[in-house]
Amino acid sequence: xxxxxxxxxVFSQAQVLAFVAAAVLLIVSELTARxxxxxxxxxxxxxxxxxxxxxxxxxxxxxLANLSGFAASPxxxxxxxxxxxDPLAGICGVTVLLLVLLWRHQxxxxxxxxxxxxxxxxxxxxxLMVPAPALRQxxxxxxxxxxxxxxxxxxxxxxxxxxxxxxxxxPPCRREMPMMTExxxxxxxxxxxxxxxxxxxxxxxxxLTRLNLRTGAxxxxxxxNLMAELNMLGLPSTLFFSSDGHLQSVRTGxxxxxxxxxxxxxxxxxxxxH
Length: 274
What we know:
Layout: E1 4-6, E2 9-11, H1 13-35, H2 40-65, H3 67-71, H4 87-104, H5 106-129, E3 142-144, E4 151-153, E5 161-166, H6 171-186, E6 191-197, H7 201-211, E7 218-221, H8 225-229, E8 237-241, E9 247-252, H9 257-268
Parallel strand pairs: 5-6, 6-7
Antiparallel strand pairs: 1-2, 3-4, 5-8, 8-9
Helix pairs in contact: 1-2, 1-5, 2-4, 4-5
């Protein structure tokens, strides 16, 4: 669930597993091509096509499942870096591709089928080896609202909570903030809190004023306590809590409207557990 840091870069667990699968596929395919030089060109071409097919079909699957989220900003369909992939759709797309390749040239592409299977198995194994995070609750500290100023605890108010950690110096934070405040205003049955990390109230107000954004859900965290308590490694980080305050999922990095709405939809379906 938590992001993973590799040097100065921060990746989600899903991104790491995707990199692992792609690396295994490319390495095994390259070894196969060297062992079978007469088919090397075809194997390289088919490997590239396999990766592209998974990315495209997984993205298409996610878009089709979240069309309403993309309606307001169709260009987000091409914002692959914001995430939003349907692994099952990607697997289906790759399976169809491999079956076609095997049907046409079984002797050439049979090793590729094995490479894909090994890549998928390795990614699953790595995912299973990552320890499951402990069930975490919404932090209990007191945080001042930008509007009110008096410190209060973060609260779900009996509704699901979306907690966004951000800063004005963070480019992806600045890009996603107008969309997120718009969604926050529209989602009446979900509580939003935008906890600024390490900046003054004046800096935050200046940023919000320039972009003509609402200030009601803004929370001050000048000591960046929330990042430490929640083990977040980068900004922006968006955390999704159920109505009883249990952390359900985490997203590090810029999020699209469609991905945000999809997470909120899942959050609303979480039963209240006491």
